[in-house]
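Lecture 7 notes: from sequence to structure.
We start with the chain below.
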Amino acid sequence: MQKINWEIELAKLEREFDGRPPNPTRPSLAVQPAPRPGVSERAAALAVWVRVVLVAALAGALAVWPYARSCGPGLFAFLGACAMIVLGGVWVSVCTWRSRMAFAHTLGFGLVLAGLVAVGLQVLPRIGYAKVDPGHPLQWVCPAPPSARPGR
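Predicted C-alpha cells for the same chain:
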C-alpha cells in the first residue's frame, strides 16, 4: 500500500485555492519552447511585424500589377506572385504562433486568404467553374497572331 504525503497534497490544494497554476511537471516543462539565446521578445516581435509588412506589401502590389495577366507568361508570373503571398502568409502565421502574437497571427491568415482569393479569381474562370463571356473565353496560353501561324 502506498503512503500519501499529506504535506505535498495540501500544498497542491493551497495553490489551487489561491488561484495559482499547479507546479509544472517534468513532461510539461519539456513541451515549452526553449528561449533562444540572444533574442529578446522585443526583437522577435519586431521581426514578426517586418514579415507581416513585407507580405502585405506584396499583396497590395498585386492590385497594381503592371504586366498583362490575361494569358501566357504574365499570367504565370501573376500566379507565382499569388503563391508567394500564400507562402508568405503561412510563414507569418508560423512565426506569430511561435511568438504568441494573436493579432499578427490573424493578419497572417488574412494574407493566406487574400492570396488564395487572388489565385481563385484567375484559375476558376479558366477551368470552367466561373461564368465567362462565351465570345472571349479566358485561356492559359495566348493564341498566336494570324501572321505567326505556320502555313500562311
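Points to note: The radius of gyration is 27 Å. The helical segments are 6-17, 26-31, 41-61, 73-99, 102-126.
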